[in-house]
Amino acid sequence: MSARVVLVTGGASGIGRGIATAFAAEGDRVVIADRDADAASRVAKEIDAHAVTVDITDAASVAAAVAHVAETIGPVEVLVNNAGLVAGGGPLTSLPLEVFDTVVAVNLRGTFTVTQAVANQMIEHGTRGRIVNVSSIGARQPTAGLGHYEATKAAVDALTRTGALELAGHGIRVNGVAPGPVHTPMTAGLMDDPQARAAWESRIPLGRIATTDDIAPLVLFLASDQAGHITGAVIQVDGGQLLT
């Protein structure tokens, strides 16, 4: 397979960095899209990739970034919508509205905005592209205090299915990956608390928290020709947690 242009949002850290590193190792031309310009540039240098600064909640910023990638590297052939956050937690009855709005803006609006811009670019260039959205098993299994985050991930799953349906005629496949808890900088505080970590691991039949290396191979597969007849699927990588 020839090198493809792969755009990974939130690629400067965590799951996104793991995914970007895996695509780069396959020889693809990876673009790390992140609002942290310094971190994106640093990681891009480390893995021989490119970096673009973008605020995925701002449609103008997204349009400019996607156009810049096409002009300087080439039209996007694989999009990984990975950027996301939790921004805080708490019961629905007392969750600050600004936390809810922030999570919706990044996780849902951001995924929609980037998908729209890249899908239109793919259609314009006749690219039979691949889009992989990073969701969460929280879309299907609730955890008290995370309802705001989980609601956005359920919405991402819905966008994944609708995108698959609407874009199939253009040869564009859209799928999702739904991790359980993953050891990343975003979850480091939880993972470093022995009691909290043990509580999470007790919910996982395979008995351990995932690493980014557990997630990236499925993303690469869904973006490959081997998955040529798979679209609209959201596949969990959770050590069996949804079985409990």
Task: Describe the 3D structure.
With 244 residues, the chain is of the alpha/beta class. It has one domain: Rossmann fold. The chain has eight helices and seven strands. The protein has helices at 14-25, 37-47, 59-72, 97-125, 147-167, 188-191, 194-201, 212-222; strands at residues 5-9, 29-34, 50-53, 78-81, 130-134, 173-179, 234-237. Strand 5, helix 5 (147-167) and strand 6 form a beta-alpha-beta unit. The mean pLDDT is 95.
Q: Tags for this entry?
A:
244 residues, alpha/beta, Rossmann fold, seven-stranded parallel beta sheet
Global outline: globular
The strand count comes to: 7
Q: What proportion of the residues is helical, as a percent range?
A: 40-55%
Q: Major beta sheet, specifics?
A: 7 strands, parallel
The overall average pLDDT, rounded, is 95
Low-confidence stretches: none
Strand neighbour order, sheet with most strands: 3-2-1-4-5-6-7
Strand content: 5-15%
CATH architecture: 3-Layer(aba) Sandwich
**Amino- and carboxy-terminal Cα gap:** 39 Å
The value of Rg in angstroms is 17 Å
Structural class computed from helices and strand pairing: alpha/beta
Domain Ketoreductase: 4-180
Keywords: NAD, Oxidoreductase
Family: Belongs to the short-chain dehydrogenases/reductases (SDR) family.
InterPro entries: KR_dom, NAD(P)-bd_dom_sf, SDR_fam
